[in-house]
Amino acid sequence: MIDQMTPTEFVRRRAAGDKLLLLDVREPHEFAQSSVEGALHIPMAQIPERLAELDRDRPIAVLCHSGGRSQAVAGFLLQQGFSQVANLAGGIVRWKQEVDPTLAL
To answer: Which tens digit of pLDDT belongs to each residue from 91-102?
Structure first.
């Protein structure tokens, strides 16, 4: 079972001092259009070859457009031995609704 985290929960936890990493797995053109400040951008297809860039001891929330790709990447990371992984439910679409209505989609 992959943990689900809402954008509101992510922001709350980070504000409380949790060192969550936001991993944005969208394509470069999507990331250029809108992004969340501080997110690490690694497109989904590059995740397997760039695993070394991720800290296995740091909690990771995975973000995409609406939650499907991030769910798949979160599952892959769990299979690779990452233990603190969550899918950011609803993706950047929900982030816009809950956190930052100024984001372009």
So the answer is: 999 999 999 999
